[in-house]
Each structure stands twice: as structure tokens, then as C-alpha cells.
Amino acid sequence: MENAMLLSSGYSIGCHLYSSSCKISKSQKKIGFLIFTAKANPSHGKLVMNSSYRKRSSKLSGEPQTSSNTIEKRTTVKKAGKREHHLWKKRDSAGSGQKALNLIRIISDLPNEKEAVYGALNKWIAWETEFPVIAAAKALRILRKRSQWKRVIQVAKWMLSKGQGATMGTYDALLLAFDMDQRVDEAEALWNMILHTHKRSISKQLFSRMISLYDHHGMKDKIIEVFADMEELRVRPDDDTVRRVAYAFQELGQEEKKNLLVRKYGCKWKYIHFKGERIRVRRDAFSEEEDDES
């Protein structure tokens, strides 16, 4: 039977008692271990000790392991940089303003006919490698500032027919143009399409635009329907929308719902003029004072 003992070089060992071959240098003691193997000799009845030296790893010793013969040179391998993949594609906006003005100049002299306008717009993009979305959006913005609502409707519908510009900004401009051009039926059809297609991503501004459209045309029931969809999607209305919906409840004779709406979404602060200064006070406190005076 053979037993092995691992002794650290930090301990003093009487090597001369067993064998003179177990002498190790001081430098070896610092970086190695001494292993004694004991083997019983049945013929002589003696215990024979054999010593062997094992070098300690550089990780345990904490010292760098160097070779006296050769020094290996580490070669650094230069890795190629990672290519970033984006979900969007950057579009070149150079010259988009001039393109937008060119579009407006082309359609300004055309009659209000779908075939003539669409034909001119198709010629406008005939030599383009990509659809000029930025230029078309700028043209819509310019036409909106000039209150040319028929042209806004024509350009926006043409963009959507090409599968381009299906954004909340385009929908907002188109709903506003329908409102100003008295096309309530087309606005309602567009709104139903938006509600079914982009149900979870409709912005507060778009809800406010549709409520404003129904309010301009005195359609109180439609205002309540849009507000119900707004609450279902957990979109908090702004102050102007709260005022319009509250007025719709009042016109329909639903005072309790109006008070509940104002209490839930109404602004808690109100500005009044006191001694020539504009002061902010709470609405509920101001209303309580008015009730006490009455």
C-alpha cells in the first residue's frame, strides 16, 4: 500500500532522516511543494520514503511564471468591430425643403381632380430611387400653414395610397383638413380605421382632434363615444378635452357624469386675479367659498 503526503515548502522537514536526495534549494521552497511517498517493503520490514518535487502553479504562488529558455510573445488578434443593426433606416434630408416647394408649385395650378393631382404627384417621384417621405411631410406642413385643406387631403391620401406616411402626424393633419372642409363622414371612416389598426398606440392629441371635430359639428353623442374609447385605453385627457366632454354631458342632461368627470380629470388649480396679481388657488376650495357666499 502506498500513501502520499503533500507538505508545503514553508514547513521545516528533517529530510536527512530518510534520504539525502530530498534536499531542495531555498528558491525551490518558495515556489514549490515537496511530495513524500511512503511505501512499505515487506521483505525488509522497512518503510521506504521517496521524495519528489512538484512545482507550484503560478496562480497559487502569485508570482509570474517565466521560462529561461524561451519567452513566448503574445500576439494580439484584432477583432473586427461589431456592425450595429438598426430597426430604422436613416433617410437623407438634403434638399428636402426645395423638393417640398417644388411639389407645392406643381399642384398649385392643377384643378381639384383626383386623376390630375395623382398623375402630377406620380411624375414628381418618377426619378426618385426612394419615396421622399421627408419632402412630402414638409409639403403637408406648408399646405397646412397656408390653410389649403383640399391640397392637404389630396397629398395625404396619395401618400397613404403609396403605403407611405402612415404616422400620427399625417392622420392628425388629415383629420384637421376633413374638419375644416366639412367632410365629417370621411373623418369618421378614417377614425374607425385608425382605431382598429393602431388601437394601442393612438396618441392623446389624436383623441383630442377627433373630439374637437365632433364638437365643432355639434355631435355630442359621438364625443361621449370617443371619450369612452379613451378611458378604455387608459389615455388621460387634457384640460381642453375635459371641458368639451363635460359640456357634452351637460347638454345631454347627465350632470352626475359631468361632476364625476370634472372631479376625476379636472385641473386641481385655478388662477384668479387678486389685488392686481395672478394667484393660483385650488379649484375645490374656490368652489366651496362660492357655495358659502351663495
UniProtKB/TrEMBL annotation:
<feature type="compositionally biased region" description="Basic residues">
    <location>
        <begin position="76"/>
        <end position="89"/>
    </location>
</feature>
<protein>
    <recommendedName>
        <fullName>Pentatricopeptide repeat-containing protein</fullName>
    </recommendedName>
</protein>
<dbReference type="InterPro" id="IPR044646">
    <property type="entry name" value="EMB1417-like"/>
</dbReference>
<feature type="region of interest" description="Disordered">
    <location>
        <begin position="53"/>
        <end position="93"/>
    </location>
</feature>
<dbReference type="InterPro" id="IPR011990">
    <property type="entry name" value="TPR-like_helical_dom_sf"/>
</dbReference>
<feature type="compositionally biased region" description="Polar residues">
    <location>
        <begin position="59"/>
        <end position="70"/>
    </location>
</feature>
